[in-house]
Amino acid sequence: MQLGTILQTGLKKQLIIHINSMDNSVVYGMIASLLVLCIGLLKLLQRKRYEKNGVKVQGLVSDLLLEYQGGTRAYYPVVSYRTLENIEFEEKSSFGTYPAAFKKGQEIDVIYDRADHKKFIIDSKKYVYIEVVSITIGLVGLIISCVYLMK
User: Fold this and answer.
1) Residue-number span of the structural domain to which 48 is assigned
2) Does Membrane appear among the keywords (predicted)?
3) First to last CA, the chain
């Protein structure tokens, strides 16, 4: 056997031993951090796309739907809005929070997609804060996990 092959095999074994001996919570923490980071980034990118290509109008939270998914609960606002063509829509937001970020009857800004008026986002600083916090938590979790793995 060549020295390079022996070194590679030894490094692989050390890495496998290190991974096997790691606390599973670090791996779960890293996966959770990646998930939170990805969700925050996807929502931020979606918001930027709507801000660039969408149409901003006034809307109204006509209802709040409490939904349970995977053991968690979230309030999803049902939003009524009128397009520039004077067509009225009432749609459930794809972004829910717990506790509810809005109240029934609250006026809000909506940005809808020019190509598909049923697709929209709520233009709210609350949602921007949630996106930024998600990205921050995801990054901090990843950094902590990586530092722990380097030990």
Assistant:
1) 18-150
2) yes
3) 31
